Every structure is written in structure tokens, then in C-alpha cells.
């Protein structure tokens, strides 16, 4: 009888220990889910604030009477939206190197300025030239640059902010070009104030909430894509 009671006691203790482990695991899972849900909510809130910043920039760009006029040379402009702090910058695509229009030499020089060696830069420029000559389709989105022979992840990260597919210019407009492009292509130093930035612009909007959560939105837009269009702009590129 005592032996049976001992066995029963062991079974009860084992069951209690098992239940304790299960409850502890469940509590940890619930806590993890709660943290993830909180982060997701905060990230979504920050992303919405970044989108609001983008819309504020678009409103200013589309309003011909807005003062002061926005200068599309990449300068940072701090703003506030509700409790979020936003940093906005607008860049004209005219100030970037158009990979579908630039010469082999200019592409090679910019690639080397971004860290490529001479052989790598030559391979890259020749591959892009081959696409323009019709052996393959021209680039349609910037991200396709990752797949071009001669490209590496590090080089792509350096080159992506300096290149475009939408200016149609054989060389960047010096008024909107970055210091890197000016140096690599021997462009004259000019002021962007009062210069037409064109209709294709890139907007970088970064929002930070009071709790430190940050979201960044990078878009390229075409202003007034067609007469009578229901939308005053068209998004060409969207990256969160």
C-alpha cells in the first residue's frame, strides 16, 4: 500500500513539474508574441509617419506657390509630424548618372569612384553597353544592377544612390550632382538654386518615434505624368 502511494506521489509530482514547464513555455511564447506585436505596431506607426513626410514633400513640390521652394539637391530638411521627427531630402534624378544613356567611360569612372577596380569597372560598363545595344533589355529598375557582370553587393550599395534610369541625360546635371559624381566626372560646381530639377525626383523620408523606433522610405516619383491624370504623380520606385 505504501509503495502504491509512493508511486502515485511520484506521478503527481511529475505531472506538476510537466505542467509547470508547459505553463512557463506558454508564458514565454505569449511574452515574445506581445513584444513582436508591439514592435510591429511601432514600426508601422513610424512607416506611416515616413509616408506622411513623403506626402508633405510632394505637396510642396507640386504647389508652385509654396515658399520657400524646395531645392532638389539632397539637402536634409527636418520636420515634425505628430510625435515623430522626420528628416526629408529631395534629389533630382537629373543629377545622377543614367545607366541607359551614359557613356562607357563615364560608367567606368563612376564605378571606380565607388570602389571598383579598373577591370571590374570595365566589365560592368561593357555589360551595360551590351544591354543598350540590344543583346539584352535595358535596365528597367535600379535593382537589376545587382545582376550585371562585375557588380558586387558592396559596389551596388555605393553606386545605387548615384545612378538613375529616368533622366535621359548622357551626363549628370552639375547643378544637382553629388560631390562624388562631380569629382569622378570633372563636373563644374554649380548651385541648384533656381535651376529646374526636372519632373523625376527621389524623396528620402526617415521618421523616428519618441521611443526610438525608426522607419525609412525611399521613393522615386514622376510629377504630373500626363495631362488630365487623376494622380498628380506616379511612383517609379518604392523602397522601405
Automatic annotation (TrEMBL):
<dbReference type="GO" id="GO:0009306">
    <property type="term" value="P:protein secretion"/>
</dbReference>
<dbReference type="InterPro" id="IPR005628">
    <property type="entry name" value="GspK"/>
</dbReference>
<dbReference type="GO" id="GO:0016020">
    <property type="term" value="C:membrane"/>
</dbReference>
<protein>
    <recommendedName>
        <fullName>General secretion pathway protein GspK</fullName>
    </recommendedName>
</protein>
<dbReference type="InterPro" id="IPR038072">
    <property type="entry name" value="GspK_central_sf"/>
</dbReference>
